């Protein structure tokens, strides 16, 4: 490569000695001599005056030395710029999230990631857990973030943060004044639920089954926001992620009903197709999720 030959020429010129240049470059002295001969043959000019004790530049050699120094500097700058380009996180991400994550957790995460990697184009899709799972399985999404569980042999599932589920009621509800509520107090209540297929609905159904709770009546909505607003309006009570109702609990629009001093948690999980490829953008996004202190 011409760059290697120029590097050898510059080193010989500065050391004024073939053997010292060979030692610095970790080359044999015949190898150094060959590089110089190749340059002289290519340029059709003698570049060095050789003597047993030292070498010195010819007029042509001096011209080449000045230009070669600039060429080598520009070459190193180009290598650094190319390396930076390769290290840049670019590309696009198709991200899916179930409603609780998509509406209350993901926006902040995306904003922080976009600030760190502004060249990554991102598109987010929000659906219930089953919808996001199916979209990842069909490769419509690069990554899915779901609440609750997923069972599919073709998916990699990685829990990445905990989510607390709490029972909430309008502040005017009779149970809002209770120090704690148990299964007996929850019998024959009106419930506001998510639709089947959502992680929140799966958690609620399991809770009803474990506590053997009989519902007086239930109303079903296909978003957590609708469930929350319905509870605020007095339609009934609901089990929701604390993420969803933090502001309303602080403002007093909703009350938390302590479930007999119990704490209910579930995981938020990252899902990816086992045969999917991981771009640099996706790898960095996953690292961001796993290192999140949210």
In terms of quaternary structure, what is this?
single chain
Number of helices: 11
For the terminal residues, how far apart are their CA atoms? 52 Å
Level-1 CATH class name of the largest domain = Alpha Beta
Number of domains: 3
Overall 3D form:
rod-shaped
Q: What would you give as the CATH superfamily of the largest domain?
A: Periplasmic binding protein-like II
Structural class: alpha/beta
Please tally the β strands and state the result: 11
Summarize this structure briefly.
The chain is of the alpha/beta class and 294 residues long.
Task: Explain how this protein is built.
The protein has 3 domains: 2-87, Winged helix-like DNA-binding domain superfamily/Winged helix DNA-binding domain (Arc Repressor Mutant, subunit A, Orthogonal Bundle), CATH 1.10.10; 91-160 and 267-290, D-Maltodextrin-Binding Protein, domain 2 (3-Layer(aba) Sandwich), CATH 3.40.190; 162-266, D-Maltodextrin-Binding Protein, domain 2 (3-Layer(aba) Sandwich). The protein has 11 helices and 11 strands. With 294 residues, the chain is an alpha/beta fold. Helix 1 (2-15) crosses helix 3 (29-43), helix 1 packs across helix 4 and helix 2 (18-25) packs across helix 3 (29-43). Helices cover 46% and strands 25% of the residues. The chain has helices at residues 2-15, 18-25, 29-43, 59-87, 99-104, 106-116, 129-137, 199-211, 224-232, 242-251, 280-290, and strands at residues 48-50, 55-57, 91-98, 120-127, 143-147, 155-170, 189-194, 215-221, 238-241, 254-257, 264-273.
């Amino acid at each position: 490569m011409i760059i290697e030959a120029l590097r050898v020429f510059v080193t010989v010129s500065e050391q004024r000695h073939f053997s010292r240049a060979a030692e610095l470059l970790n080359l044999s002295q015949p190898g150094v001599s060959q590089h110089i001969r190749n340059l002289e043959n290519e340029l059709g000019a003698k570049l060095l005056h050789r003597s047993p004790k030292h070498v010195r530049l010819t007029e042509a050699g001096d011209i080449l030395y000045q230009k070669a120094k600039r060429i080598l500097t520009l070459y190193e700058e180009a290598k650094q710029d190319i390396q930076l380009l390769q290290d840049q996180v670019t590309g696009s991400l198709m991200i899916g999230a179930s409603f609780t994550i998509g509406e209350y957790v993901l926006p902040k995460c995306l904003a922080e990631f976009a600030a760190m990697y502004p060249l990554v184009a991102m598109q987010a899709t929000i659906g219930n857990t089953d919808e996001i799972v199916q979209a990842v399985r069909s490769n419509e999404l690069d990554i899915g973030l779901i609440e609750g569980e997923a069972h599919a042999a073709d998916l990699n599932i990685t829990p990445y943060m905990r989510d607390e589920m709490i029972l909430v009621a309008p502040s005017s509800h009779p149970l809002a004044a209770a120090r704690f509520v148990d299964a007996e107090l929850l019998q024959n209540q009106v419930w506001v639920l998510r639709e089947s297929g959502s992680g929140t609905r799966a958690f609620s159904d399991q809770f009803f089954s474990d506590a053997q709770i009989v519902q007086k009546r239930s109303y079903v909505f296909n978003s957590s926001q609708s469930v929350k607003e319905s509870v605020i309006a007095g339609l009934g009570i609901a089990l929701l992620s604390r993420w969803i109702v933090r502001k309303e609990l602080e403002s007093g629009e909703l009350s938390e009903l302590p479930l007999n001093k119990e704490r209910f948690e579930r995981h938020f999980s990252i899902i990816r197709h086992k045969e999917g490829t991981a771009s640099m953008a996706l790898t960095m996004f996953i690292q961001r999720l796993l290192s999140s202190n949210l």
